[in-house]
Amino acid sequence: MARTPAAVQQADAEAKARLEFADAALALAGHEVTDPQLREIVERTARNELLPDEAIALIRRHIQG
Description:
Helices cover about 75% and strands about 0% of the residues. By secondary structure, the protein is mostly helical. This is Antitoxin VbhA domain-containing protein.
């Protein structure tokens, strides 16, 4: 299904808001995601490219080897 430029902009804005919220919540707890691979997984999840279960599996695989 083709997406209009307005729909793409809206989706990008929503993903940005999700990332900003997650970053703020982590910062309040004194944490931040600094690993580039983990950051990419978080960004892909925020853009709905990954389901949460898929993200969890990728994060576990990355951390646990």
